[in-house]
Amino acid sequence: MPEIKEIVPFLISWPMAVIIGLLVLRSPIRVLIDRLIKSESGKAKVGPVEIELGKLAEEGHQVISDLNRISYIMAESRRLELEITNGLFASYEAMLGSVASPEQKEEMKKHIEELKELTKSAANKANAADARTSRG
Question: Phi then psi for 18, rounded to 5 degrees?
Fold first, then answer.
């Protein structure tokens, strides 16, 4: 019985009330947050701080899109570098003999092919995402 007397104050404390409230209201809270994020003018104000969640989410998507584009350009540039280097190796070998081992040449060709596939896949995903964004 003494254990129950120790637990009761904990159960009725305000942090526990907040946790229970959040658990009970999690679905309506989630719906509210989704509406704020998806709406163009979704604003939230807590005290003196006001946040435009719709604008924030849109800017976040734009930043991610820009970073994806940078990664794509870097991968495409690296692929081009490897293709040029591979071509130079062939020219040098005609004049000087072997410049790279067969294993190195094979590894470079694998990297070129993998970068081609990855950049093609990334471009397709980016185009699909842009199409969804422009429709939505």
Answer: -65, -45
